[in-house]
Design a protein that fits this description.
- The chain has 350 residues and is an alpha/beta fold.
- The chain has helices at residues 13-25, 65-74, 89-94, 96-117, 156-175, 197-206, 226-239, 256-271, 300-306, 314-327, 329-337, 342-348; strands at 3-8, 29-35, 55-59, 77-82, 126-132, 179-184, 186-188, 211-214, 220-225, 245-248, 253-255, 282-285.
- The protein has a domain at 3-189 and 223-251 and 291-312: 3-Layer(aba) Sandwich (Rossmann fold), CATH 3.40.50.
- The chain is 42% helix and 17% strand.
- The protein has a seven-stranded parallel β-sheet, with helices on both faces. A three-stranded mixed β-sheet has the order 7-9-11.
- The radius of gyration is 20 Å and the shape is globular.
- The mean pLDDT is 97.
- Bound molecules: nicotinamide-adenine-dinucleotide and thymidine-5'-diphosphate (TYD).
- Thymidine-5'-diphosphate (TYD) binds at residues 89, 186, 196-197, 200, 212-214, 219, 221, 256, 288.
- The site of nicotinamide-adenine-dinucleotide has 30 residues, from helix 1, helix 4, strand 5 and strand 7.
């Protein structure tokens, strides 16, 4: 009998890269993608693996405890890789409860179901929770987040993720559930919903619209290519030690304003425009409430203990990313028009 791995949030940005990697790398394991298909879930992200024998999509909501319990009864999961979440800080500022429901209660439902389904034998099982560096709060000009940095979340998004991380740790400590957590820095790459800084800016430049930079653009993020995050997740799933936390980051810090200048340069080159054209679209707008100044990750534990390293430089990754968005105009247009929502009906007829 084939083994089963449950991946939640596999229709989202990072989840889709993780699903593809697992489906292709483990042909003898069933990869089950559980996703509610919120505005951020897009099955077009993974249309290339839809028909693979070892892949199954299930539309469902992690906040529905009964549904999650039944799912764990129906399938004998050897592992869970939990990515499903509300993920956009700005949305968390306008609608915090949605984040608390999905990120906290949804994670609790999965933990409860795994704990009960696996209670007779925890060996060879793993509950892997995907989290963010934003749980550590905001850095000053120096220093890096390590796995032992104290939690200090400051937005409803990061507070909801921190809560879910604490629950995962508590289930490890109290019930001995085999859990692993990773906390990653900002991702960029193909298939990111165009509400986040990089794809939003690419789309705006393409359409000759203003690029909104919050405040003075001095905030710093540490950017990692999404496929390198997916590779790290696969490695940690395979080799990570139960009870451990691993930080994942690109060692690649940019102020927002410098990042956008670089992006403008690449866009001008790729669109065949005169140098300096896209930069004219930069517009400084009202700052985000409670805007964290700086995130930066020390990923040396993952590098030395498990041998992970990023496969591309930022210079390569940003060009690959821009090319992807320009070559996948239909994907972007379907999001803007809302047509990506039709994929599910077409494919699954309900
Ligand atoms: P995303 O918003 O692109 O995708 C989230 C996915 O979860 C979507 O497919 C959505 O439909 C699904 N989902 C949301 N609520 C659900 C529910 N109640 N039940 C089932 N499915 C639901 O997010 P992302 O950027 O791919 O992030 C994935 C994970 O990685 C999140 O846990 C996030 O906190 C974490 N993370 C993201 C980043 C980043 O830069 N994007 C960095 C570090 C960690
Ligand atoms: P974002 O992509 O939303 O990720 P996060 O808030 O999780 O780091 O934002 C990245 C940075 O870019 C953050 O400092 C906020 C800023 N930002 C802008 O300046 N303009 C924008 O339109 C967006 C969406 C973000």
């Amino acid at each position: 009998m084939k083994k089963n791995i449950l991946i939640t949030g596999g229709a989202g940005f990072i989840g889709s890269h993780v699903i593809r990697l697992f489906v292709n790398k483990y042909p003898n394991t069933n990869i089950i993608n559980l996703d509610k298909l919120t505005y951020a879930g897009n099955l077009e992200n993974i249309s290339d693996i839809d028909k693979k024998d070892n892949y199954k999509f299930i539309k469902g909501d992690i906040t529905n405890a009964d549904f999650i319990y039944d799912l764990f009864k129906k399938y004998d999961f050897e592992g869970v890789i939990h990515l499903a979440a509300e993920s956009h800080v700005d949305r968390s500022i306008t609608n915090p409860n949605e984040f608390i429901n999905t990120n906290v209660f949804g994670t609790a439902n999965l933990l409860n179901a795994a704990k009960d389904a696996w209670k007779d034998n925890y060996s060879d099982k793993l509950f892997y929770h995907i989290s963010t560096d934003e749980v550590y709060g905001s850095l000053g000009e120096t220093g890096l987040f390590t796995e032992t940095t104290a939690y200090d979340p400051r937005s409803p998004y990061s507070a909801s993720k921190a809560s879910s991380d604490h629950l995962v740790r508590a289930y490890r400590h109290t019930y001995g559930l085999p859990t692993v957590i990773s906390n990653c820095s900002n991702n960029y790459g193909a298939n990111q919903f165009p509400e986040k800084l990089i794809p939003l800016s690419i789309n705006n430049i393409k359409n000759n619209k203003q690029i909104p930079i919050y405040g003075k653009g001095e905030n710093i993020r540490d950017w990692l290519f999404v496929q390198d995050h997916a590779n790290a997740i696969e490695l940690i799933y395979r080799k990570g030690k139960a009870g451990e936390t691993y930080n994942i980051g690109g060692n690649n810090e940019w102020t927002n304003v410098d990042l956008i200048h670089r992006l403008c340069k690449v866009m001008d080159e790729e669109l065949g425009k005169k140098k300096g054209t896209s930069e004219k679209l930069i517009t400084f707008v009202k700052d985000r409430a409670g805007h964290d100044l700086r995130y930066a990750i020390d990923s040396s534990k993952l590098q030395t203990e498990l041998g992970w390293k990023p496969s591309v430089t930022f210079e390569q990754g940003i060009v690959l990313t821009v090319k992807w968005y320009l070559e996948n105009e239909k994907w972007l247009n379907n999001i803007i028009s809302g047509d990506y929502k039709k994929y599910y009906q077409k494919q699954y007829h309900n």
